[in-house]
Design a protein that fits this description.
The chain is of the alpha/beta class. The chain has 5 helices and 5 strands. Strands 2-1-3-5-4 form a 5-stranded mixed beta sheet.
Length: 169
C-alpha cells in the first residue's frame, strides 16, 4: 500500500556516535523511545515540547511518533568516515555528505514527499544543504531540484536544546 505523506521530516545528522546507550544524545531511537525499559530521556521531553511548538497532534496515541505526521531520518545514513574508515564521533566530509544526500536522502524525500523539513542542529542542515540558516526561522530550500519549507531547531539533546532553544521558550 501507499505510505501516507508525513507533514514533517525530522532530520538528524548521522545514526550513531558509538557512545554507550545512556550517554548517547545522537541516536534517534534512544531519543524517541518512550518505553519504560529505556528510562525517561531528557531528549524525549524536549521532543514532546517541540511537538507542542509545532502544533502536532498525537491522535490519542501514547507515542507521538505513531501519528504518522512525522518521519524521522538522518541526513547521512552512515557514521563512518569515508576517508579513514573511523566510526563514532567523526566529521563527515563534504563529498561523503553530498553523495549520501543524493543517493539516499533525496530519494527518501521524493518517495514520502513531506511538507516541511525540520533539521535538528547545524550538522544535518550543513550535510543536506551545504549551509545553515538561523535557528527557528522558516525558510524555503531546494534539495535535488525539489523545494521544501524547512526550519533548523536545536538538537533535542539537553545541552543544545536548553542553550539554543531557550529552555523551550
Amino acid at each position: 500500500g501507499r505510505t501516507a505523506r508525513p507533514t514533517f521530516f525530522f532530520i538528524f545528522d548521522k545514526p550513531n556516535n558509538n557512545d554507550r546507550f545512556r550517554e548517547s544524545d545522537l541516536v534517534p531511537i534512544t531519543v524517541f523511545d518512550a518505553r519504560s525499559a529505556f528510562g525517561r530521556q531528557p531528549s524525549y521531553d524536549n521532543l514532546l515540547r517541540l511537538f507542542e511548538l509545532l502544533g502536532l497532534r498525537t491522535g490519542g496515541q501514547a507515542d507521538p511518533l505513531a501519528s504518522g505526521e512525522v518521519h524521522v531520518t538522518n541526513a547521512v545514513k552512515c557514521d563512518k568516515c569515508a576517508l579513514t574508515g573511523q566510526t563514532g564521533r567523526v566529521t563527515v566530509n563534504p563529498d561523503q555528505s553530498k553523495e549520501c544526500v543524493e543517493r539516499y536522502l533525496a530519494r527518501e524525500l521524493a518517495i514520502l514527499r513531506p511538507r516541511t523539513l525540520v533539521f535538528f542542529g547545524e550538522a544535518p542542515q550543513e550535510y543536506a544543504l551545504g549551509y545553515t540558516t538561523p535557528i527557528w526561522q522558516p525558510v524555503q530550500a531546494t534539495i535535488s531540484g525539489a523545494t521544501y519549507w524547512m526550519m533548523r531547531v536545536p538538537h533535542t539533546a539537553p545541552t543544545p536544546y536548553n542553550t539554543h532553544g531557550g529552555r523551550g521558550a
